């Protein structure tokens, strides 16, 4: 689209006449030295002008001393005085001016004309970050976009929330890569990305209708430009390290504490002589390591006026900080455009990726946290030690036996499209996209015996094949015309259809030989106990109609009306279709005549939008009353199996999509010739008909459109670009506030219990007037010091040293009625501050990021089943000799482990997200050896974090689909630090 | 080239229009579940009716219904058993052992949920199967099976919590929370279900061998007898137990130590047991045995026999050895119990011998059937009812029948009891119930029924409070889920 607008401008300008004084010629290039076609070259204060050709060459008749004005969309306009017959110029990319173009979904638009709220991130803002997924590099880059790294595992996808948490269900945004809808962008090599545009308000999202409620991340990959073929190599390599190791008690301390607990709980000491045990085993040393990371990529791009291409290949390889964790990925991308006739174009964007993920044994970090430090990891005779006081597995044995859990995936994502211009103002586009994914999993567990509780009696092989197929066919008709230089209308009409199907096949056999991968095949296992299954498999479809009109009056009064009508197989026939309208208004105040004489503003625009969006991120087939199978009974003297199945889930027959109604008011400002830019938005997202998975008691769950909530807040973005002599610098800041509150709960206002700790306790409650997934429990009021204190208290069964809870209702009993809200897991405010400096050949970029106001439930400490190891803070426990009023006596369970603010900590942090220092060799040195550019750099990702949180990392997002467990820190593989050196070479 | 673009225009416009065709898109948007049956199809055949009934039995061997929480509620609370394992391991279970329960205890909620999940599955059969066109005899039997199990699960609930929400129908997804019924209302429903079941269920011998383990007329009568006993309806107890004893379906011929082994599963002793199997592919068993197995050697070591139980046996009573595993003991299968086991005793009735079948998932998926109602219990109920109704001769006969089986060929032990007084005989029957049914999920509820739980349990240092500890707290998550419709039991 961007290209088509350029071509249009080119055609328009070609008609301009020129007349001769003296011929001046030259070449216009971009910052990479590639020729820019279609650049307008005009003699200042005249109508005389020319355009560059496909290689960026131009030629114009001009007088000496005339000033040539070079202008091109997306580039800063430059002026040069004619002196001599040759004038070459390099244009700088313009990311701040009014000419900036943003993707708006089914098209592009000048940012100046946009009535919605869109955050754009360019390739250079996320370049060279050592991450597998581009979303990770986006952290702190865009206002309103909160990205939290869930798991510090190679290739793990971060959690993305746009403008708060809109639902208790799946709040993930939709990703649209070159027009293709995908759930996940890990197939994508981050270096292939040209721009990322995050659509945030109703006006920009309504065109995505029932899938727009959680925001849309539009990704445009790099295309070719006509001109000389440019080759680029970029590679980096480095190390990954655990940023913070938790301090656990050593063997003799642990033994002392276990003895104390045993006595506290009425037993006998377990260890006769704790002092003799020494330091023992630090299990973290056994599971963590210094990981490695490397990435290499080669790109070739170029083209002529008929054909452009961008071909890239990359290889990413990461060995994680947890032993055995590894991820590698090979990607190929081919983006082409073909201009078949003057009005008919074809194009394709195709990406193939192949990845392999080596998974760690489930819960291994938590196992190491819990493991008994008094045991020997491996004895001299080769056997593994096991604890006499706890059933926590020996992590060394777990790692030694559970070595084979590998997922290999191949994915083809892309589209092929055709565009036809006709009747001057119309363009018809048809795009057919596919997303084909093939997954192949192998899990092998050998036969082993460590202890009664850590054993596997028969070797077991599990193999899985999954095939996911999506096709998306979109047909759009665009009309674009200006009437009488006053009215501009850009209208879009479209129809789309999507079909997604997933098939799965799994086989399991026992007693499979495992001495090499060559024999890990089901066929070699025993047929006794063999199992196969081919569910879950599913299919869903969407059919949609689109409509949008952008109308601008006098280039300063802007109106956008969007509408999408969606039908989804996820909803019952009688309520299958939904319509999502939105309207956006804009006023470019700066272009008003009364602004002509003022000097303060260089840009001033007010915009507002209002509209409705939907969310269908829910499981398929909910409106069908489905039977749970596999509930087989045993009968007969032979105790044989008889098939069993029944209706288990409660079915909601009239379940609908969730609706988000959003209001946005924004003000865009530029000062000092746009050296300083600022943008302020107020947003109010109201979610209604929120789908709840409600515990309605007696073990039953129901899904219902039962709740409403809002997310409100402000987004501020400010940028400063300037240079002082040779020092060029830019400072960009963004800040977002979120106020999240549930306004209504259906089902009689029954609060939703969430945040299961896995020990029968739950840490969050979602209730009216509170944030989604707010922490809920007792408030601690010190520690009981004496038996007298206990006697007079509301906790008559307590012992001295136990936590004292606040008797909130003063009824003399501590029970569920005394629980209170203890904070929110959603940051109230988060921000990013990104700086770039360049001086001659040197460049420096430092990115900061912060998050404030959210709490973390330290589930790691709050969940104990037996004699797990302790963090060193346990040494400050209450004892008669150490009458602490903040740390309770040690027990392995009981009321001290009830959900209370004793386990709640602040989740606020400030993190230096990234530092990059680079040096570009002077081009004069290189041109002689045929190299266009060389840049070397050093990058540090997550080098420093400032936080009071005592756990590994304050980034605790919660797992996918577990919105109500956000901020519960349980079995999280910590986020790590990555240090790399890299090289970029252009030929 | 022009023709190509015209062609393209035509195709694209046509296809857009095709998508617009309402009929086409409605078909395109209709996607049925893949690899899953839907209710209308499933509950429309005899096969569906049988499978839905089987699913109730599946629920019975699940963790929340009959494993951890069940052991806590029915056994650790009693004077027969301690929590077991390491003192700090699964501390929430200590609250059952010590009567310091609070409504947030996860075990109480698990138990509640486990019983209601079974009730919901029974309701599916009771409500949906009547409309299915199928063999009427089979239909009646399946509904009868569901009713008997539903009655049993409500019996567990009413004994544990008193009055609970009485849910006997399919619940609409937006039905309001059901408040607690009275204890009497629950008992009325239980009796109705059991009488319905008795009317239609076949006797044990009338089932095909492949269906051994399903609910029977005898089992339903046995449960009704027990339910009647808890309400002091002694003539009912006597009538029902007499009928069972005269039915010819059961006897006391199975040696006591065999009853709890794999060979003793569904023996002539058995009225009802939860069926579990160690299937070669796994998934047919339960974790019942693992959680009780010798800690450090086989399993987790919870629910261990108490010193008080060990002392309760008469000298030479072989039932002690068949019930209690001691440190260093050589088991019948030749296994020697480790001498440094964490706990002094373990429950032998949950022991899985080495020669029994094993699942690839290990002991966590064990073959052990969970014995819920057996013939000796019926005979002891018969004895107690007869004694209450002053038919002391029958009482003594029944009591001595149980002692005789325990005695076996060893004439020097467990002498016959003779009648001296009604009270003395009652005490003897209660004592016999304890040792005969030790570790069989009867004792705590039995003590409460007998009205002496406080006396007995406080003597062992447990914090039993009369008027409170007879019932357990209504789980807080259930109160929360009901929006406060459920009320808490007194004292919690």
Describe what you observe in this structure.
The complex is a heterodimer of chains A (987) and B (492). Chain A is mostly beta strands. Chain A has a domain at 2-90: Carboxypeptidase-like, regulatory domain (Immunoglobulin-like), CATH 2.60.40.1120. The longest helix of chain A has 14 residues, at 251-264. Chain A is globular. The two termini of chain A are 28 Å apart. The model of chain A is unreliable at 7-20 (pLDDT under 50). Chain B is mainly alpha-helical and 492 residues long. Among the domains of chain B are: 39-201, Serine Threonine Protein Phosphatase 5, Tetratricopeptide repeat (Alpha Horseshoe); 276-368, no CATH class. Chain B has helices at 2-20, 22-28, 39-42, 46-60, 63-66, 68-76, 94-98, 106-128, 136-161, 183-200, 217-230, 234-246, 256-259, 288-292, 307-312, 318-323, 375-388, 392-407, 422-436, 443-449, 453-458, 476-481; strands at residues 81-84, 270-274, 302-305, 324-326, 345-347, 370-374. In chain B, the strands form 3 sheets. Chain B has a two-stranded antiparallel sheet. Chain B has a two-stranded antiparallel sheet with strand order 2-6. A two-stranded antiparallel sheet of chain B has the order 4-5. The N and C termini of chain B lie far apart (85 Å). At the A-B interface, helix 4, strand 22, strand 23, strand 26 and strand 27 of A face helix 1, helix 2, helix 3, helix 4 and helix 8 of B.
List the helices and strands and how they pair.
The complex is a heterodimer of chains A (987) and B (492).
Chain A (H helix, E strand, L loop, with lengths): L1 H13 L8 E7 L10 E4 L5 E3 L5 E5 L5 E5 L6 E4 L7 E2 L10 E3 L4 E3 L7 E5 L11 H4 L7 E4 L10 E4 L11 E4 L2 E3 L10 E7 L2 H4 L10 E6 L5 E16 L8 H14 L19 H4 L3 E13 L3 E13 L6 E16 L2 E15 L5 H7 L24 H7 L2 E19 L3 E20 L2 E4 L2 E3 L3 E24 L3 E24 L15 E8 L4 E16 L3 E12 L8 E11 L13 E15 L11 E3 L3 E3 L4 E3 L2 E3 L10 E14 L4 E22 L2 E25 L2 E11 L1 E7 H4 L2 E5 L5 E5 L7 E4 L2 E4 L3 H5 L11 E3 L14 E4 L5 E11 L2 E11 L2 E3 L1 H4 L41 E3 L2 E12 L2 H4 L6 E15 L28 E11 L1
Parallel strand pairs in A: 1-7, 13-16
Antiparallel strand pairs in A: 1-4, 2-3, 2-5, 5-6, 8-9, 10-15, 11-12, 13-14, 15-16, 17-18, 17-54, 18-19, 19-20, 20-21, 21-22, 22-23, 23-26, 24-25, 26-27, 27-28, 27-29, 29-30, 30-31, 31-32, 32-37, 33-36, 34-35, 37-38, 38-39, 39-40, 39-41, 40-48, 42-43, 43-44, 44-47, 45-46, 48-49, 49-52, 50-51, 52-53, ...
Chain B lengths: L1 H19 L1 H7 L10 H4 L3 H15 L2 H4 L1 H9 L4 E4 L9 H5 L7 H23 L7 H26 L21 H18 L16 H14 L3 H13 L9 H4 L10 E5 L13 H5 L9 E4 L1 H6 L5 H6 E3 L18 E3 L22 E5 H14 L3 H16 L14 H15 L6 H7 L3 H6 L17 H6 L11
Antiparallel strand pairs in B: 1-3, 2-6, 4-5
């Amino acid at each position: 689209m961007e290209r088509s607008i350029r071509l249009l401008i080119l055609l328009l300008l070609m008609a301009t006449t020129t007349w001769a004084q003296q011929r001046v010629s030259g070449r216009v290039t971009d910052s990479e030295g590639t020729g820019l076609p279609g650049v307008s070259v005009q003699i200042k204060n005249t109508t005389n002008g020319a355009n560059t050709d496909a290689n960026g060459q131009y030629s114009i008749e001009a007088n000496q001393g005339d000033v040539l004005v070079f202008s091109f969309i997306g580039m800063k306009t430059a002026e040069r005085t004619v002196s001599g017959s040759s004038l070459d110029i390099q244009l700088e990319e313009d990311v701040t001016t009014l000419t900036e173009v943003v993707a708006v979904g089914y098209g592009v638009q000048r940012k100046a004309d946009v009535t919605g709220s869109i955050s754009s991130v360019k390739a250079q803002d996320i370049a060279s970050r050592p991450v597998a997924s581009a979303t990770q590099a986006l952290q702190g880059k865009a206002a309103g976009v909160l990205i939290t790294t869930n798991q510090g595992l190679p290739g793990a996808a971060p959690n993305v929330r746009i403008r708060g948490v809109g639902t208790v269900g799946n709040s993930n945004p939709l990703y649209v890569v070159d027009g293709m809808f995908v759930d996940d962008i890990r197939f994508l090599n981050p270096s292939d990305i040209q721009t990322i545009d995050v659509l945030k308000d109703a006006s920009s999202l309504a065109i995505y209708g029932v899938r727009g409620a959680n925001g849309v991340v539009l990704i445009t990959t790099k295309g070719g430009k006509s001109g000389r073929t440019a080759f680029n190599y970029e590679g980096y390599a480095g190390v990954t390290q655990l940023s913070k190791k938790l301090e656990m008690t050593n063997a003799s301390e642990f033994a002392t504490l276990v003895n104390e607990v045993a006595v506290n709980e009425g037993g006998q000491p377990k260890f006769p002589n704790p002092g003799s045990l020494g330091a023992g085993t630090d299990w973290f040393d056994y599971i963590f390591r210094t990981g490695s990371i490397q990435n290499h990529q080669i790109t070739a791009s170029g083209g002529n006026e008929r054909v452009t291409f961008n071909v890239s290949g990359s290889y990413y390889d990461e060995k994680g900080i947890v032993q055995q964790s590894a991820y590698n990925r090979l990607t190929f991308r081919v983006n082409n455009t073909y201009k078949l006739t003057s009005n008919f174009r074809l194009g394709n964007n195709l990406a193939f990726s192949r990845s392999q993920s080596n998974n760690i044994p489930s819960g291994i970090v938590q196992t190491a946290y819990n493991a008994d430090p008094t045991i020997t990891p491996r004895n001299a005779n080769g056997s593994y030690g096991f604890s006499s006081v706890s059933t926590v597995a020996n992590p060394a044995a777990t790692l030694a036996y559970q070595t084979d859990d590998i997922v290999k995936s191949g994915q083809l994502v892309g589209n092929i499209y055709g565009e036809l211009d006709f009747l001057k103002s119309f363009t018809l586009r048809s795009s057919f996209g596919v997303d084909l994914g093939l997954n192949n999993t192998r899990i092998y567990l050998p036969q082993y015996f460590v202890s009664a509780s850590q054993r596997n009696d028969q070797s077991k092989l599990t193999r899985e094949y999954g095939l996911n197929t999506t096709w998306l066919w979109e047909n759009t008709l665009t009309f674009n015309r200006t009437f009488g230089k006053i009215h501009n209308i850009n209208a879009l009409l479209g129809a789309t259809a999507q079909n997604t199907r997933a098939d799965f096949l799994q086989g399991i056999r026992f007693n499979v030989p495992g001495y090499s991968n060559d024999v890990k095949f089901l066929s070699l296992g025993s047929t006794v106990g063999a199992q196969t299954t081919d569910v879950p498999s599913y299919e869903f479809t969407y059919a949609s109609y689109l409509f949008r009109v952008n109308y601008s009056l006098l280039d300063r009064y802007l109106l956008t009306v969007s509408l999408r009508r969606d039908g989804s197989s996820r909803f019952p026939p009688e309520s299958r279709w939904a319509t999502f309208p939105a309207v956006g208004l804009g006023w470019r105040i700066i272009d008003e005549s009364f602004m002509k004489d003022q000097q303060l503003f260089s840009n001033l625009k007010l915009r507002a939008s209002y509209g409705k969006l939907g969310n269908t991120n829910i499981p398929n087939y909910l409106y069908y009353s489905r039977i749970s199978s596999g509930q087989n009974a045993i009968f007969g003297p032979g105790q044989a199996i008889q098939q069993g199945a029944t209706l288990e889930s409660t079915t909601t027959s009239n379940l609908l999509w969730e609706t988000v109604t959003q209001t946005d008011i924004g003000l865009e400002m530029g000062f000092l010739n746009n050296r300083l830019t600022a943008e302020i938005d107020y947003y109010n997202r109201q979610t209604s008909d929120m789908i709840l998975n409600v515990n309605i008691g007696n073990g039953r769950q129901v899904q219902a459109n039962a709740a409403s909530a809002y997310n409100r807040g402000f987004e501020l973005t400010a940028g400063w670009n300037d240079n002082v002599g040779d020092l060029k610098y830019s400072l960009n800041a963004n800040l977002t506030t979120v106020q999240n509150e549930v306004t209504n709960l259906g089902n009689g206002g029954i609060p939703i219990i969430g945040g299961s700790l896995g020990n029968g306790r739950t840490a969050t409650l979602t209730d009216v007037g509170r944030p989604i997934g707010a922490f809920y429990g007792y408030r601690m009021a010190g520690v009981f010091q004496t038996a007298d204190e206990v006697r007079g208290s509301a906790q008559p069964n307590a012992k001295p040293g136990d936590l004292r809870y606040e008797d909130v209702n003063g009824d003399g009993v501590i029970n569920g009625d005394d629980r209170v809200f203890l904070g929110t897991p959603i940051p109230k405010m988060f921000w990013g501050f990104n700086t770039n400096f360049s001086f001659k050949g040197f460049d420096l970029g430092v990115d900061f990021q912060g998050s404030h106001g959210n709490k973390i439930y330290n589930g790691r400490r709050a969940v104990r089943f037996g004699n797990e190891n302790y963090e060193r803070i346990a040494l400050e426990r209450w004892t008669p000799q150490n009458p602490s009023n903040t740390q309770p006596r040690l027990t392995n369970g009981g009321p001290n482990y009830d959900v209370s603010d004793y386990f709640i900590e602040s989740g606020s942090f400030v993190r230096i997200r990234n530092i990059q220092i680079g040096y570009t060799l002077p081009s004069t040195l290189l041109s002689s050896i045929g190299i266009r550019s060389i840049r070397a750099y050093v990058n540090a990702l997550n080098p420093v974090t400032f936080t009071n949180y005592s756990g590994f990392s304050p980034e605790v997002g919660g797992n996918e689909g577990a919105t109500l467990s956000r901020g519960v820190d349980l079995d999280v593989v910590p986020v790590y630090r990555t240090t790399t050196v890299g090289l970029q070479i252009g030929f | 080239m022009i023709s190509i673009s015209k062609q393209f225009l035509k195709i694209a416009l046509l296809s857009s229009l095709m998508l617009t065709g309402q009929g086409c898109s409605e078909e395109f948007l209709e996607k049925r579940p893949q690899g899953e049956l839907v209710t209308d199809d499933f509950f429309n055949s005899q096969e569906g009716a049988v499978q839905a009934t089987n699913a109730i039995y599946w629920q019975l061997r699940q963790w929340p219904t009959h494993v951890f929480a069940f052991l806590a509620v029915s056994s650790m609370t009693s004077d027969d058993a301690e929590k077991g394992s390491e003192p700090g391991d699964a501390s929430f279970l200590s609250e059952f052992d010590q009567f310091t329960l609070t409504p947030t205890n996860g075990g109480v909620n698990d138990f509640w949920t486990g019983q209601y999940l079974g009730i919901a599955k029974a309701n599916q059969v009771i409500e949906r199967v009547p409309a299915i066109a199928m063999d009427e005899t089979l239909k009646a039997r399946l509904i009868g099976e569901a009713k008997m199990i539903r009655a049993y699960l409500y019996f567990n609930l009413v004994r544990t919590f008193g009055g609970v929400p009485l849910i006997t129908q399919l619940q609409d997804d937006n039905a309001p929370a059901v408040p607690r019924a009275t204890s009497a209302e629950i008992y009325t429903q239980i009796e109705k279900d059991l009488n319905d079941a008795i009317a239609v269920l076949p006797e044990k011998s009338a089932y095909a061998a492949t269906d051994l383990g399903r609910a029977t007329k005898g089992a339903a009568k046995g449960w009704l007898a027990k339910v009647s006993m808890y309400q002091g309806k002694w003539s009912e107890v006597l009538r029902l137990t007499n009928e069972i004893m005269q039915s010819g379906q059961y006897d006391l011929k199975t040696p006591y130590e065999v009853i709890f082994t794999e060979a003793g599963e569904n023996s002539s002793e058995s009225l009802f047991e939860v069926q579990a199997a160690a299937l070669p592919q796994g998934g047919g068993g339960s974790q019942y045995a693992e959680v009780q197995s010798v800690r450090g050697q086989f399993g987790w070591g919870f629910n261990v026999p108490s010193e008080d139980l060990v002392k309760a046996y008469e000298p030479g009573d072989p039932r002690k050895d068949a019930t209690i595993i001691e440190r260093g003991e050589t088991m019948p299968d030749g296994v020697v119990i480790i001498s440094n086991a964490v706990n002094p005793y373990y429950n032998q009735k949950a022991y899985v011998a080495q020669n029994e079948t094993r699942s690839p998932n290990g002991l966590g998926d064990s073959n052990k059937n969970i014995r819920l109602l057996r013939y000796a219990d019926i005979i002891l109920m018969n004895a107690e009812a007869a004694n209450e109704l002053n038919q002391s001769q029958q009482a003594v006969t029944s009591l001595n029948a149980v002692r005789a089986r325990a005695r076996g060929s060893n004439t020097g032990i467990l002498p016959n009891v003779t009648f001296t007084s009604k009270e003395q005989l009652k005490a003897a029957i209660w004592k016999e119930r304890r040792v005969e049914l030790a570790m069989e999920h009867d004792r705590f509820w039995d003590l409460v029924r007998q009205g002496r739980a406080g006396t007995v349990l406080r003597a062992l240092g447990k914090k039993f409070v009369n008027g409170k500890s007879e019932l357990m707290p209504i789980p807080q998550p259930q109160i929360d889920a009901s929006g406060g419709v459920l009320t808490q039991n007194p004292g919690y």
